[in-house]
Specification:
Layout lengths: L28 H14 L5 H9 L10 H14 L2 E5 L10 E5 L1 H11 L11 H7 L6 H31 L4 H33 L4
Antiparallel strand pairs: 1-2
Helix pairs in contact: 1-3, 1-4, 2-3, 6-7
Length: 210
Amino acid sequence: MGKEKKSAPKKPAAEAKLPLSDGNPRQSREKASRFAVLGMLSLGKKSGYDIKKQIETSTSNFWSESYGNIYPMLKKLLAEGAIREEKSTPTAGGRQKQLYSITANGLHALQEWLRQPALPGPEDNELLLKLFFSAIVKPQDSRALLKSFRNQVAGELARYGGIEDYILSLQATKAQKTYWLATLHYGQAVSRALLQWSEATDKAIKELDE
């Protein structure tokens, strides 16, 4: 009898790579939205409603998502294997929520995205557009515009102070608080710089009347 041929050992199947990050730093808004949803799920299991509410109370100063974005994105992430779904424990009335949690593949994709360069923010600015054409109105009109702007920014700064107190009171890890405060301090620094710019610009425009 001839020797029985041994079949070559099978190579393990390669892990499917999620289409979540292509290494290109110029991510589209849709891709960033996908990671915003994944990021919220990395903080714990949530429903689509829970994701929206947590965004409103955490990142809405610099990043927001609508229900119209969140629910279609959850379907895409499920299809890609980045998240899993389950039903919540029934309430007294028998109602259950659809809950989502991040998978190992989803967490890996999120970590990969976090290491990539970030896109600059949107550049459209109605205030600057108005100032650019303001040579055809009176200086006092432009100064009134700047005063209104300063009041808005001052209000934002006051609100940021309350948010900082809230973050410090949370039961969260030191790392989480450090990164959350970093996003808040960015907003505070930008607001203070805008106030300085507005005051200097107001002074320059005032001199047009002298």
